[in-house]
Each structure stands twice: as structure tokens, then as C-alpha cells.
Specification:
10 helices
């Protein structure tokens, strides 16, 4: 079985430089690199080819979209044939890795992959502007387990404070490492291991006066599929979403931590009637969750009773 780490982060954050340093933490192990370029021609692969690892490039789209997922799976299967100890995936700076954890939780589909978590590279100077304008940036942060603020030597103290606040505003639980030139030590592996050791579905929240709460009251006319899609439309702006919802197929427990949405049958549970039909949403200050919730509910307005 191969351990897999995902390296994500928006364009220009320093993922390739970071990867060159990160790979040195696995000296003596058989390593496979998978470099994902959104454009037609890969360039990072040439920069990484001197690291002594088996290298595969996937260009022309994100490995997490349907247009490249088959190729990604094919490359991952090759890692089993190569008996790789470690797989390091550098995702495209434009990729949306929202479903990565759910993807690798399918053990029947990926029995040879032991997913270790994701690192999100953040540009200390440009992050505040990118975060405000690129929705993908927020999705990358939501999907990750550790944030690495890179290029701190180029940032003013004001920029660093703003960057830290944005990260902790969306993910108060996330370990943050600050560095220059993508340099990291083995402490990042310890942080990833602690994140992996958390119970499934558990996401610690910092007690914070800035915590925001709202409730969506949902009619029993909604289907399980519609409920799942409704939550997915605003999940990236939340810390936690949870509730017992009556659907056309029966009672369902909706549970979302970060960006992983689960809608499961729960007919066997005894739930007080007043709790059924109420989807509770937790988010942080500065996160546009109310706007996102209203937009999502607009697509399913016939099933929405009210937003409290």
C-alpha cells in the first residue's frame, strides 16, 4: 500500500519549490510524483525531474474533474505495480480538490492508497486578494489539513496578519506553518498525522465569539439527492452542517464537516419531532455563508420553509 499526500494551493503559491523540500523528508523511500498541470503542456515536471523519483504528468485539466479522473486512476494503479512507498500529488493551482477525501475513502476503488492528507500552500503577499476573488482558493483551503504560509520574507506584518486571520476565519482548527522558499521540517508530517488521527467526521472548533449560526427549515418534499446537492452548494463556507431531515425516501441524517457531505438513512434513531427538518449551519466571521445559503436555497425553494 502506498501513502499519498496531496499538495494544493493557488497559482504562484510556491507548490513546486515546496515539493522539492517536502520530498527530502522521505529519503530512502520509493517515491512517485504526480504533477497536474491545468494547461496542455506541463512545466513543473521538468523542474522536478532531477529529484530521483518516478514522475508522471497529467495535463489539460484538474485530476479531480471527470475529464482527467480516469487518467489519474490509471496512474495511481501504476504506483501499486511500482511498489511505491510514497505518492506525492501536486495539484493544479486552479484545481478544486473538494472531493479528494471522499474519493480515497472508497477502499474498494483504491485499496492500494493510504491517504495521509493535504497541504495547502498560501502566498503570504497575494493571499488576501486571491481569497477575495478566487472561489477555488477557498475550496483548496477547505479540503486541506495543514496550511503553509510561504514567502513570508516578502510580506509586511500587516499582510501576514491578514493572511493568518483569513485562514483561521475559515479553518480555526487548521495547523499553520510559516516559511520562506517552501522550506519545511518533519513537524509538518506530525501535523498531518494528528489531523489523520482525528475520528471520522470530527472537526475541532475553536471557541470563538465570531462563530456564526443559522438554521434552514426544510420540508419533507425534498429528496435525499436534492438535500446532498443543496448542502454541497454552500459547504465550503462552513465549519459544520448537521441535521435530521425528512425526505421523500425517509428520515436522513445530514452531516458535513469542512467540505465532506454525508446524507445517510437514520430511521432506527429516535429523534424528537421538533428537531426534524432543521439543518443547522456553523460558520465564521467574514465567511459569506448566509449569501451562499440563500443562493443555494433559491435552487430548491419549493422545499425550503425558512432560513433562521
Amino acid at each position: 500500500m502506498s501513502k499519498l499526500y496531496l499538495i494544493t494551493g493557488f497559482l504562484g503559491a510556491g507548490k513546486t519549490t515546496f515539493l522539492k523540500n517536502f520530498i527530502r523528508l522521505f529519503a530512502g523511500q520509493r517515491i512517485q510524483l504526480i504533477v497536474n498541470e491545468f494547461g496542455q503542456e506541463g512545466v513543473d515536471g521538468a523542474l522536478l525531474s532531477d529529484l530521483g523519483a518516478y514522475l508522471e504528468e497529467i495535463s489539460g485539466g484538474s485530476v479531480f474533474c471527470s475529464c482527467r479522473l480516469d487518467q489519474f486512476e490509471k496512474v495511481l494503479r501504476q504506483s501499486a505495480e511500482l511498489h511505491s512507498d510514497m505518492i506525492l500529488v501536486e495539484a493544479s493551482g486552479l484545481s478544486d480538490p473538494t472531493g479528494v477525501r471522499k474519493l480515497f475513502s472508497q477502499t474498494d476503488r483504491f485499496p492500494y492508497i493510504d491517504y495521509q492528507g493535504a497541504v495547502c500552500l498560501v502566498d503570504a503577499v497575494r493571499f488576501p486578494k486571491i481569497y477575495a476573488t478566487a472561489r477555488t482558493c477557498m475550496k483548496q483551503l477547505a479540503s486541506s489539513d495543514v496550511a503553509v504560509i510561504n514567502k513570508t520574507d516578502l510580506a509586511s506584518e500587516e499582510q501576514l496578519v491578514q493572511t493568518r486571520n483569513l485562514i483561521h476565519g475559515q479553518r480555526p482548527d487548521m495547523p499553520v506553518i510559516e516559511t520562506t522558499f517552501g522550506t519545511v521540517s518533519a513537524e509538518i508530517l506530525d501535523a498531518l498525522a494528528r489531523a489523520k488521527a482525528l475520528p471520522e467526521g470530527n472537526m475541532p472548533l475553536t471557541a470563538d465569539l465570531a462563530l456564526r449560526k443559522l438554521t434552514i427549515v426544510i420540508a419533507p418534499t425534498i429528496t435525499s439527492y436534492e438535500l446532498q446537492k443543496l448542502i454541497e452548494m454552500f459547504a465550503e463556507y462552513t465549519f459544520r452542517v448537521k441535521g435530521f431531515i425528512r425526505t421523500t425516501e425517509g428520515l436522513r441524517m445530514a452531516d458535513c464537516v469542512g467540505n465532506v457531505v454525508s446524507v445517510k438513512p437514520c430511521e432506527q434513531l429516535t429523534i424528537p419531532p421538533e428537531r426534524i427538518g432543521r439543518l443547522n449551519v456553523l460558520s465564521g466571521a467574514g465567511m459569506p455563508v448566509r449569501k451562499a445559503v440563500r443562493e443555494a436555497c433559491g435552487w430548491y425553494q419549493t422545499h425550503i420553509i425558512e432560513i433562521i
